[in-house]
Task: inverse folding
């Protein structure tokens, strides 16, 4: 994405009414003076609140190049991009896309139908179109799909003075100038320099003498989550992207990674909640229901299985009705502890922390956690039931059931995402509702299994 504009507006308060009035009355000079003085983010926020008629005026008041800065900060949904682009003339939209940073233009085009993409690329500036086509070929959610090709590269056998000359010429078109990459005659990545290195070095110093040759880079096919972890670990502002032969293909900037982290977090939370997509608020109840129904239908049938499982112990319940009182308690505790273990496991996988640990150590640690929590809760509930109902054996039965249930539920909550991760399945699909329902089934089996086995000792 575009490098953030560090200049803030001179005014802390943006006069929306003045802008809107200037827009609607055709006062182009006043509108442009006020609007172009705003940060691109504020421009995009103002633009999103306008109706179609007002937006049509903006297309007449702003050049495609000026509109490009706004569009890079729009962050719209798929249908919003389509609607806005449809309002523009094809030539205006194509010029605007040509003036956007290539990776931002690709993000927009990825939301369109293929025939629309082809149409825009056909009438777009050839150089910009070729650059965008190259990025469109990379698989989604990989380093190649989020990189930009607008970077600054120099060669090793030149002086700092000549490198600074290149930097000044290329800076207006580059997405970031804080890192300058060094390549050889075959475009292999051989080194990197920071802007600070260039500024403090002597003008006659050779680039080969001051560059860092141990460059941290990422493969073009690397998953974007792994790229985000590398950016976090190394605290880079940008990360070079190479192919299998170390040819420099592009760079990924920190603002792109922030978008990736937000996207991945939203995706994981959606799956943990058992919802298809939480990227946007659905104001249409039918659309919202469509996203939520698949998981709910699955959980409905799992719930029916749980109900039928309880039905198989109907004879036990008829003889000892007091057992029904503790069903919600045991099932709820199983679901809670399973969800806690699931959250820890999914977070560990997402951050890469679990990759550094031995899997057996993880399993033993979770088993120990389940043992401690189960023992504590089991002893507490045994005492509570004894003083409440005056039946020590009933208290022991409920306590032992919770003890075993919490151990099993903790292991299930941590093992399921680990197994899914091993099978290259997104562990977040082991959602909270799914784990909760599975642990309900396990807890019912444990509880009524123990109760049936020792039913003769229970007091009705």
Result:
């Amino acid at each position: 994405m575009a490098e953030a504009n560090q200049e803030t507006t001179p005014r802390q308060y943006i006069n929306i009414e003045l802008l809107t009035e200037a827009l609607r009355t055709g006062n182009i000079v006043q509108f442009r003076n006020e609007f172009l003085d705003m940060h691109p983010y504020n421009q995009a926020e103002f633009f999103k609140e306008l109706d179609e008629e007002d937006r049509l005026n903006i297309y007449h008041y702003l050049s495609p190049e000026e509109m490009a800065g706004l569009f890079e900060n729009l962050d719209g949904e798929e249908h919003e991009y389509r609607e806005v682009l449809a309002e523009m003339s094809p030539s205006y939209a194509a010029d605007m896309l040509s003036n956007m940073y290539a990776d931002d233009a690709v993000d927009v085009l990825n939301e369109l139908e293929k025939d629309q993409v082809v149409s825009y690329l056909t009438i777009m500036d050839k150089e910009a179109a070729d650059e965008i086509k190259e990025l469109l070929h990379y698989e989604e959610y990989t380093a190649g799909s989020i990189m930009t090709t607008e970077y600054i590269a120099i060669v090793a056998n030149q002086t700092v003075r000549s490198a600074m000359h290149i930097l000044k010429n290329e800076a207006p078109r580059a997405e970031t100038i804080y890192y300058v990459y060094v390549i050889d005659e075959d475009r292999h990545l051989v080194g990197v320099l920071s802007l600070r290195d260039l500024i403090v070095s002597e003008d006659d110093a050779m680039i080969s003498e001051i560059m860092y040759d141990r460059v941290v880079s990422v493969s073009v096919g690397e998953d974007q989550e792994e790229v985000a972890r590398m950016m976090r670990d190394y605290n880079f502002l940008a990360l070079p992207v190479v192919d299998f032969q170390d040819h420099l293909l592009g760079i990924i900037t920190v603002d792109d990674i922030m978008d990736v982290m937000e996207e991945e977090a939203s995706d994981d939370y959606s799956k943990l909640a058992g919802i298809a997509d939480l990227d946007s608020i659905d104001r249409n109840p039918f659309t919202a229901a469509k996203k939520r129904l698949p998981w709910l239908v699955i959980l409905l049938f799992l719930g029916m299985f749980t109900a039928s499982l309880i039905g198989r112990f109907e004879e036990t319940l008829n003889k000892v009705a007091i057992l029904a009182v503790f069903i919600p308690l045991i099932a709820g505790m199983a679901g809670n502890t399973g969800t806690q273990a699931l959250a820890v496991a999914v977070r560990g996988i997402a951050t890469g922390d679990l990759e550094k640990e031995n899997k057996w150590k993880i399993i033993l640690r979770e088993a120990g956690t389940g043992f401690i929590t189960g023992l504590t809760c089991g002893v507490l509930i045994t005492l509570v039931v004894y003083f409440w109902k005056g039946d020590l054996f009933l208290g022991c039965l409920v306590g032992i059931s919770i003890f075993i249930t919490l151990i099993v539920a903790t292991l299930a909550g941590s093992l399921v995402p680990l197994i899914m991760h091993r099978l290259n399945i997104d562990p977040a699909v082991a959602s909270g509702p799914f784990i909760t329902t599975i642990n309900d089934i396990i807890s019912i089996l444990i509880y009524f299994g123990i109760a049936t086995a020792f039913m003769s000792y229970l007091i009705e």
User: Anything to note?
Assistant: The chain has three domains: 16-137, 153-256, 285-457. DSSP finds 22 helices and six strands in the chain. Residues 397 and 454 are 9 Å apart (CA to CA). The first helix runs from residue 16 to 25.
